Amino acid sequence: MKKVMIIGADSRGMSLLKLLHGASGFDVVAVVDVDEQAPGVQLAQKWGIAAASDWRPWMAEPLDLIIETTGRADVLEEIRRLAPEGANIVPSAVAQMMAELVEEKEALIAKLKSEAARRALIFHSSHDGMIVVDEYGYITDMNQSAAELLEVDKDKVIGKHILTVLPSSGLPRVLETRQTEFHQEVELANGKKLITTRIPIIDDNGKLFGALAVFKDITELVALAEEITDLKEVRMMLEAIIYSSEEAISVVDENGNGILINPAYTRLTGLTEEDVIGKPATADIAEGESMHMQVLKTRRPVRGARMKVGPKNRDVIVNVAPIIVDGVLKGSVGVIHDVSEIQRLTAELNRARQIIRTLEAKYSFADIVGESEEMKVAIEQAKLAAKTPATILLRGESGTGKELFAHAIHNASDRKYNKFIRVNCAAIPETLLESELFGYEEGAFSGARRGGKRGLFEEANNGSIFLDEIGELSASTQAKLLRVLQEREIVRVGGTKPIPINVRVIAATNVNLEKAIAEGAFREDLYYRLNRMPIYIPPLRARKEDIPALCRRLIQKLNQDYGRNVEGVTDEAMAKLLAYDWPGNVRELENVLGRAMIFMKFHEVMIDATHLPPLASPSSVPAHRVETEEEIRPLEEMVSRYEASLIEQALRRHRGNKTAAARALGISVRNLYYKLEKYGLDKNIMQ
């Protein structure tokens, strides 16, 4: 027995209640209507059926069929959402058709009773099947519609008993009970489903003359109702998916007019449904061609098309595909990706990586800013050196970024997962430097830690050690360092046992080591050990074309440090920065930008020339000339002076371009830098 609930008790609901009440296979458990005086409610109460004003509590009960007759779309949608699993829902449109069918049959029956003269015409012209039997159950009449539904010959079955033609017929029961059976569902042997009403034919005196069965084929109606329900469920599911998607989606019909967009599309483009729905596909495009129209024309999908959309000119990438149903083009669907958001997130990720590296005191070659020829040479040399275990000597003026190179070399080597120890040889007192570098044994000196102490070389074992300001080492420490480089072992202070180590040494200095050797302040043998892989880092004045890129990188760093949002440098300020020689190099540039940001107003986002502190004008370039000597000087000195003069001339002729000057002189760029350092020539010589 199928449990049925009717929602809506107006005339349609009452008709359906009459149809289902007492019908075999159906049990109407409740009739619901907010109006307690509704006719269906009154009839339900009369028949002892539960009546209620709210249908929701009944959703907890087992129901097989829910009939909704209110005609309200919101009620139908809520019923579908809350209905028990397995319950079939008949929407108001189908219910209305069934109610109209019942009302039509009832009216027809009344008309037959009152208008006997017109019975035959109505009987045979009706599209519904009709069968009349006498009081004994023999067929006395049948219309053509009934014959077609039952698939019998009307002329041959008239006069036969109804059970021989339709064994499942309920007419004999009606003859016996004299009770009308409304809207009974019957399934024929051929698979057709019928709704039938059986009526006894009784005159005014109560005499039984026979019975009438009126039935209608509802096979297609039931299938259509099920299909409509399934289609609506599928549509609701697809719309829910589209509307909940974070991807911007737009759909157009076969003519290129918008039919659907989701909230993500509105957030991205700034266009609402009123701006798009029913409008041509070009309505949202600010720059570029409509991919919807292209797909509709070619019937082929398009992927990765760049364009700008909406009033905000958002830069997007579009993927569009055609919608083809049974070979027929129905429209196209597009998915829009916000490129500007991707770019913003990528920039934030890069900034986060820089912050992390700063917190860990680690840098890579990606942190080294420089597109000048001189800087490219230094970077390529450093990358090449990183792949070898050789000792590296970083040479350059203070503030050029020697420590940055040391970090990058370590991180690009196969030792990057081991320790990187940094030592500023000039910052540690000479009396402590030796014990800090090599460690000491217990009792080596007063105040020595019990058990001794490991030195920095031991801490850096299998890793790298960066010795900054190597030119400041004392003679005794130089001798010990030479032993480390030659023998790959150390001896702690106060100890006698050598300790083997595997350490990559990266040294750095801004001192002219050749001059220090000549003056006896630096060991020549240590120099040759350290100078195995020399890398000269050019000063900022020799690579001024890198200043704009350096400013962008330094401003990003200073924004993080100072909590500012400075965007860049104006053209006037950049001209002022480019005109300065920067004796303090990149460190001085960072200092100048930092001071400018400190004194900027909070709402200002561009560093202007007025924000910069006073900068000295470019110093005049000293002219190095070979002195005319009357007396004869040592040959080596004369040759050196003449060589310096030739190098200066080559640089002036090529306007300071080191690569071109080295090519003209027939020497390498690295050798040119060495000679510039050796002869004390200004590396920014310019005609």
Helical coverage, percent range: 40-55%
Largest sheet: 6 strands, antiparallel
| Extended strand count | 25
On the 0 to 100 scale, the average pLDDT is 82
Distance between the termini: 107 Å
Number of discrete helical segments: 27
Shape: elongated
Structure characterization notes:
This protein has 687 residues and is an alpha/beta fold. The chain is built from 27 helices and 25 strands. The strands form six sheets. The chain has a six-stranded antiparallel sheet with strand order 12-11-16-15-14-13. A five-stranded parallel sheet has the order 3-2-1-4-5, with helices on both faces. Strands 7-6-10-9-8 form a five-stranded antiparallel sheet, with helices on both faces. A hairpin with a 2-residue loop joins strand 15 and strand 16. Helix 1 (11-20) packs parallel to helix 2 (39-46), helix 19 crosses helix 21 (524-530) and helix 25 packs across helix 27 (669-679). The model is unreliable at 356-361 and 618-630 (pLDDT under 50).
Provide key terms for this protein.
687 residues, alpha/beta, 5-stranded parallel β-sheet
Short description:
This protein has 687 residues and is α/β, with parallel strands linked by helices.
How would the blueprint of this fold be written?
Elements: E1 2-7, H1 11-20, E2 26-32, H2 39-46, E3 50-52, E4 65-68, H3 73-82, E5 88-90, H4 92-114, H5 119-125, E6 129-134, E7 139-142, H6 144-150, H7 154-157, H8 162-165, H9 171-177, E8 181-187, E9 193-202, E10 208-217, H10 219-244, E11 248-253, E12 258-261, H11 263-269, H12 273-276, E13 285-287, H13 291-298, E14 302-309, E15 314-325, E16 328-338, H14 339-359, H15 373-386, E17 392-395, H16 402-411, E18 420-424, H17 430-438, H18 456-459, E19 464-468, H19 475-487, E20 489-490, E21 499-500, E22 504-509, H20 513-518, H21 524-530, E23 533-536, H22 547-562, E24 568-569, H23 571-578, H24 585-598, E25 606-607, H25 635-653, H26 658-665, H27 669-679
Parallel strand pairs: 1-2, 1-4, 2-3, 4-5, 17-22, 17-23, 18-19, 19-22, 24-25
Antiparallel strand pairs: 6-7, 6-10, 8-9, 9-10, 11-12, 11-16, 13-14, 14-15, 15-16, 20-21
Helix pairs in contact: 1-2, 1-4, 15-16, 19-21, 22-24, 25-26, 25-27, 26-27
